[in-house]
Amino acid sequence: MIKNILVPIDFSDYSKNALKYAVEFAKTFTAKLYLIYVVEPMIYPADFSMGQIAIPSTDIDIQSRAEEEFKKLTNEIDKSLQVETIIKTGKPFVEINETALEKDIDLIIIATHGHTGVEHLLFGSTAEKVVRKAPCPVLTLREPIKGFVYKNE
């Protein structure tokens, strides 16, 4: 039985489409949706003797913008569904998987951006890392999304 679904959001079109898919999935199973956005701290090397330092002021701006974006997204979701938004700071794949444990998530639905080649080597894939370390099943979605039909509004 799927009761809790976690949907990582980065506010890209990919993740918004994955959310539309997840909404239909949640309706089918009468599941609660958890939407998570992870602010990755900006780290700059100060010099070789001090190591790396984080710049927290921009993180606050990003967090408040994320809260605004979440309000817009949740207003578009069917009011019959339970939705909880979560904003965390850290490495996205770590925070996503930790949240899955904390909230007793039954399924993670995550969009892939489809990076290939050098781009994939340099940046890696958050979705791939989530799949490798997740404490529950993960459904990865790639454009174009097939399967459940969602309203493209």
UniProtKB/TrEMBL annotation:
Q: Where in the cell is it found?
A: Cytoplasm
Q: Which CDD domains match?
A: USP-like
Q: What keywords were assigned to this record?
A: Cytoplasm
Superkingdom, natural source: Bacteria
**A single cellular component GO annotation:** cytoplasm
Where it mainly occurs, coarsely classed, is: cytoplasm
User: Where would I find the UspA domain in this sequence?
Assistant: 1-142
Which Pfam families does UniProt cross-reference here?
Answer: Usp (PF00582)
Sequence similarity: Belongs to the universal stress protein A family.
Which PANTHER family does the entry link to? SENSOR PROTEIN KDPD-RELATED, STRESS RESPONSE PROTEIN NHAX
Its name, as the record gives it, is Universal stress protein
Specify the taxonomic lineage: Bacteria, Pseudomonadati, Ignavibacteriota, Ignavibacteria, Ignavibacteriales
